[in-house]
Structure formats: structure tokens, C-alpha cells
Amino acid sequence: MHRSVPDSRRAGLRRTAALVPAVVLLAALVSCTSPPDPLDTPCGVVVDGSGSGSSEDGFDAEAKLKSSLLPFLDEQGCGSVEFAPITRSSKSSPCRVADVDLDPPGNETTDRDRARAKARSLAAKRALEELECARTQDGSDVWGALDRIGAAVSGDGAGDGSSAKLLVVSDFDQADKDFNLYKADLSTEQKRTSVIDTLVEQRGLPGLKDMHVYPVGLGMQYHGRPSESEDFEAFWAEILEGRAQAHVDYDYR
Q1: Cβ count near 170 (within 10 Å)
Q2: Average pLDDT, stretch 147-151?
């Protein structure tokens, strides 16, 4: 004998059926709005305030900084960023801007992508402020700037730097009151080794072990002089990779 389903039960079934798509949709929305993975890579940025960084024909530090900084911060997953200037005495330079938290804390209603983009924009602003200050001082102590940023990123200069990423916007032309690389003979491996030995003896090595260094502008002052450029780059490769034991990448060159 056929029995009809009561109207009240029918209505309940319809309500249950209507709720199923809503529950599925809510679950999908929750999964889509779950917090993104944290950004935990410590990063550093070095900006070159020397006169060679304002050359129209060679290395333009400001243009290089503007074109490379934001892609670097984004692509390397930087969670924080420190800054250092290249000046006549980079380690003791008064040019200092505050570091930036690139993964600011939020809650369930925070638009994390927007917050991160805003933090990266602040980092770009501070990098330009650091550059502007560095340009008020003479000299080009690249060695000291590398040591300063390494210490800043690792906390005390002695920590594990295996995840640290450093963007160095400079032509790397070391020139301070005690040493001018432009006057050094870098034409053979033996001569380059002699120059490096002297610098290491006088100044020690920059604390960059296991860090990833991304040079932007290295050797641009030798445009049109390939043999000199090759010697210059070999000199810095030996310092950064051979002596300081950093990893050099040219993704933003």
C-alpha cells in the first residue's frame, strides 16, 4: 500500500536539500580565505650612494633600485628587510632607516595580500630614503656595507644565514680613504689574490656565510671594456663565494 509523505516531512527534506549547496559553498569560501603561508625569509638591501651610482652612461643606482627591489622582495618571499648604505665609511655611516616587517600580523578579516603589498611599498620608500642619505656622503666602502648588512640580517653577524637573501644595488667599485680598487691591478689570478689577502688582513671578511647575494649593477663601470670587466667580476666572485662562502645569483642583474 502506498503511503504519502506528510507535508511537514516533505518541507524538512526540501530545507535539508537546500542547505547542502550552502554548506559546500561555505566550505569552499573558508578554504579560499585561509591564511597564506607565512613569509619567513630574512632579507637585506644595500644601496650605493657613491658618485658612480648617478652616472647616466654607466650605473644608475636609483633606477636599478626601483626596477629590482619590489620583484626581489616578492619573489624571494621576504618576511623582513634591513637596509645598509654604501658611503665612505659604510659600517659607521649615520644613514639608517628602520627595518620593515613584510608579513604584518592580522586577523581573520585582514586582507593579507593587500597588507603585504603595503609593507613592500613602505620598504621601497625606505630604501630610497637610505639612498638619498647615502648620496650626501663621499666614498664607496662596499666591503663595509656588505659586513654591515650581513650583521643586520643575521642579528649579530654570527647566526645561521642559510636562508638570508641580500640585494646589493651597486657597481661594487670599492673606493674609500684607505683603499681604491680602481687603482689595483686585477689582471691575473695571482694579483687578485694578493689584493684580496691585503683587504682581508686589514678588514676581515664580511659575515655573509651561506647567504644568497644578488648583485645589481656589478661591473657596469666597465661597459665596453670586457677584459677589465671579467677581471673585476672574478675579483668579487672570489671574495663573495671563495672567501666569504656566500652564494651569488644574478637574477636581478
Answers
A1: 27
A2: 97
